[in-house]
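Lecture notes, part 5. Sequence design as translation. It can be helpful to think of inverse folding as translation between two languages: the language of shapes and the language of residues. The source text, in structure tokens, appears below.
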């Protein structure tokens, strides 16, 4: 029976690979190539900006002299104009690459969702090896999280919105305009909440699957009679039985999402406790060291809480019940 389960699992994986693999590999390659290009462009842009800043300092220093050298100033300014044009060109290229990346991320998100749904259906059938299926689901869920579309910032000023009081506006036309403004803000907040709920579900699944994998490895080690510390330190390290649920994918890839949620928190920083703000600023600073997926989920929950509070205020202003 076990051999049959493994064989079924193998056939399913072959089927999934035939359906998704080729397109996925092509999309992932394009995604990685674009990411590498945008990193290179940003490096070049940063270098050009530094040179421009240095030239600006030289121009200011020359102008402050008692007898400034006008020819030198003109020469420096001429070079600065050329640098500005280059900076503008590279910035436009970065913007184009960013748009291309977002388009590919949408396609990747869709493909990963299809694979995950297929694997979930297989797991529910009960005719295959659950540990292997969980491992595949974990892998694709992590990839899907990384390929999530760009997180939008609020297009309105949350603090100014709170100052709108429709009951005090007497002019009907003006009242209608502000009412539509509140409605749009409400819809925007609601869309963001839906996005965060989806991200939260994915992180919950990743944490759950990582814990199941850890438990499976511990049970396998126990059943096999392997005592990692006394017989094979290398095996213990490879299995990572003692490790907590950390992000197993590229930290550089998840960083923009974390930073975007932090910016969103700053937008919603309305009469929040300074202690909470310090906590999340420190959390963001830990991205490069010990930031793990549980930290990421906590960040999502904090953003969700603030958005829910803000949505409630907007609903009251509009008159929703």
């Amino acid at each position: 029976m076990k051999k049959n389960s493994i064989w079924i699992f193998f056939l399913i994986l072959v089927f999934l690979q035939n359906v998704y693999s080729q397109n996925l590999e092509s999309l992932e390659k394009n995604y990685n190539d674009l990411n590498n290009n945008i990193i290179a462009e940003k490096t070049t842009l940063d270098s050009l900006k530094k040179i421009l800043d240095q030239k600006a300092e030289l121009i200011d220093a020359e102008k402050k002299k008692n007898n400034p050298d006008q020819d030198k100033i003109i020469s420096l300014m001429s070079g600065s104009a050329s640098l500005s044009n280059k900076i503008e060109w590279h910035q436009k290229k970065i913007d184009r690459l960013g748009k291309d990346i977002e388009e590919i991320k949408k396609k990747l998100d869709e493909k990963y969702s299809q694979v995950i749904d297929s694997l979930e259906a297989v797991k529910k059938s009960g005719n295959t090896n659950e540990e292997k299926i969980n491992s595949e689901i974990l892998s694709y869920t992590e990839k899907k999280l990384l390929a999530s579309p760009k997180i939008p910032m609020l297009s309105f000023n949350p603090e100014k919105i709170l100052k709108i009081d429709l009951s005090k506006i007497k002019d009907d036309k003006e009242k209608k305009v502000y009412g539509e403004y509140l409605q749009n803000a409400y819809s925007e907040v609601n869309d963001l909440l839906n996005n965060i709920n989806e991200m939260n579900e994915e992180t919950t699944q990743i944490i759950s699957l990582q814990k199941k994998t850890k438990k499976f490895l511990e049970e396998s080690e126990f059943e096999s009679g392997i005592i990692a510390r006394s017989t094979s330190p290398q095996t213990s390290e490879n299995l990572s039985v003692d490790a907590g649920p950390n992000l197993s994918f590229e930290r550089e890839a998840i960083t923009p999402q974390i930073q975007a949620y932090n910016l969103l928190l700053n937008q919603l920083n309305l009469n929040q406790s300074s202690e909470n703000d310090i906590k999340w600023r420190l959390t963001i600073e830990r991205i490069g060291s010990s930031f793990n997926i549980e930290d990421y989920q906590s960040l999502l929950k904090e953003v969700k809480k603030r958005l829910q509070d803000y949505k409630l205020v907007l609903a009251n202003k509009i008159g929703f019940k």
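The translated text above is only one of many valid answers, since several sequences can fold into similar shapes. The first helix runs from residue 2 to 63.
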